[in-house]
From TrEMBL:
Gene3D superfamilies: Mannitol-specific EII, Chain A. Pfam families: PTS_EIIA_2 (PF00359). Residues 1-92 form the PTS EIIA type-2 domain. This is PTS EIIA type-2 domain-containing protein. InterPro entries: BglG_antiterminators (IPR050661), PTrfase/Anion_transptr (IPR016152), PTS_EIIA_type-2_dom (IPR002178).
Length: 93
């Protein structure tokens, strides 16, 4: 199985068959954590199912905008509240 770590973040995902309600969770650790041999500071966990299938392209495009923005990822690492995290994500897209 390949690692879900890319540069400074990881994006693991759940199997569609096991997801009752779609959700994306975000974990931020300013010190970084070891993710299968790679240090990451942000983890974006995707638990998606058929309900969101019509929105998948848009969702992944938005996610790509966020993780392609190194300044946003660096700022995200320093966020100290949920509100600040949401603001950073909105500004990144």
């Amino acid at each position: 199985m390949s690692s879900t770590a890319l540069n400074d973040f990881a994006m693991p995902h759940a199997e569609i068959a096991y997801v009752n309600e779609p959700v994306i969770s975000i974990y931020v650790n300013p010190q970084g954590i070891d993710w299968n041999g790679t240090v990451v500071h942000s983890v974006f966990f995707f638990a998606l199912n058929e309900q969101v299938k019509p929105e998948l392209n848009s969702l992944y495009e938005t996610f790509n905008e966020i993780v392609s923005n190194q300044q946003a990822l660096t700022t995200l690492r320093a966020s100290s509240s949920f509100e600040e995290l949401v603001k950073i994500l909105k500004e990144a897209v």
